[in-house]
Amino acid sequence: MRFFPDRDCPTMFSLGLFGPAFRSLGRRLGRHLHCGVSGHRIVAGAALMMTLTACDPLGQRTSLVPPDRPADLRPAAQEPSAERLRLTRYYAALQQDLLTRGLMRTDGGGPETPYDADDLVENFERIAFYDEYGGPGSAASGLLGRWEDPVRIYAAFGPSVSDAQRQQDTATLAAYVARLARLTGHPISLTQTAARSNFTVIFASQDDSAYVASEVKRVLPSLSGADLAVFVNPPQSFYCLVRAGGLQSNPVAYTRGVALIRAEHPDLGRRSCIHEEIAQGLGLRNDSPRARPSIFNDDDEFALLTSQDEKLLQILYDARLKPGVSAGQARPIVRQIAYEIMGEPR
User: Fold this and answer.
1) CA-based R_g, the chain, Å
2) How many other CB atoms are there within 10 angstroms of residue 343's CB atom?
3) Which of 24, 263, 287, 317 is the most exposed place for a label (fewest CB within 10 A)?
4) Domains along the chain?
5) Close Cβ partners of 205 (under 8 Å, ≥ 6 residues apart)
6) Residue 108, by phi and psi: left (phi above 0), alpha (psi -120 to 50) or beta?
7) C-alpha distances in angstroms, 257 versus 23, 219, 263, 274?
């Protein structure tokens, strides 16, 4: 699904601790309605709980029985803000409009969307080697970027996200992570421990700004204030965001990633964000209007990873390719892999 911002809604910002940004994307919502309209900035207040212990100088012989300790110690759910409710209605209406027009397909492509090995080669080069918003001067432009170490993904949820939605999104994420591991042959797993993770996927609403700030700073502690603000208060036209990259000394060898998926979106919209943002965070960082069937296209036709997208990920993590190789150096290798995958004679 293509929900990237229009060209007059830039998303590019520097990586701070890491090298220049490889991908900092929103989804193109405004192309169908309007672009660049920022929602009101609502920051959820943090609740401070203090436990007071009293000392009885007289040595009280009988102790008071405290109430049962609640199983869930999260702060009590607050009523959603007016802005969060407005965004929920807005994105629901947008998704329905796209579905009504036959977009946001979930079938992965069909007979009417054919592609061959040459298409794979062309689309891979456009999508894996260049940054749509980074420009030719970015550190990664024209170079292949991907993870070499195992990818350990952690799901983080803002306080406003209900238990039912947490369970649903976790199940969706777990299934997709397992699929990515099978496709790429790379160790990609879901971890329950934030400290062990290197790629955090944050599910949060407009009311969870303080929580988003703390999570992003935990993953990217050197991120600038301006860059952090894009995650904390994303414009309405930004459906979801991702930032992945390596150290400044080697930006194409990915070591850290963080994605934001807005909880206000309907189920299919959140699933679409999970599919695309994580795939982009693995190294497929660009878009191409010629890629079809593909979620790496601004036409909103497909919501979920397609058959061609699966093959692009296979190529990206083929052992014959290495991070830092240029498009020209990789082209004959990519061609060989593509013909093998498609089973076409050369």
Assistant:
1) 22
2) 7
3) 317
4) 117-342 (3.40.390.10)
5) 80, 84, 87, 158, 160, 161, 262, 263, 264
6) left
7) 10, 8, 19, 13
Mean pLDDT of the chain: 82
Amino acid code (one letter) for 47: A
The two three-digit tokens of residue 63, written as one number: 């102790």
The pLDDT assigned to 346 comes to: 82
Residue 10, token pair as written in the block: 């830039």
% the chain with pLDDT above 90: 71
Residue reference for tokens 């609403």:
205
Determine the pLDDT at residue 93.
Answer: 98
10 vs 149, which has greater pLDDT? 149
- Single pTM value for the model: 0.79
Residue 343, CB-side half-sphere exposure with 13 Å CA sphere: 0
* Residue carrying the six token digits 């042959």: 185
Of 57, 89, 259, which Cα lies nearest the Cα of 176? Answer: 259
pLDDT tops 60 at residue 49:
no
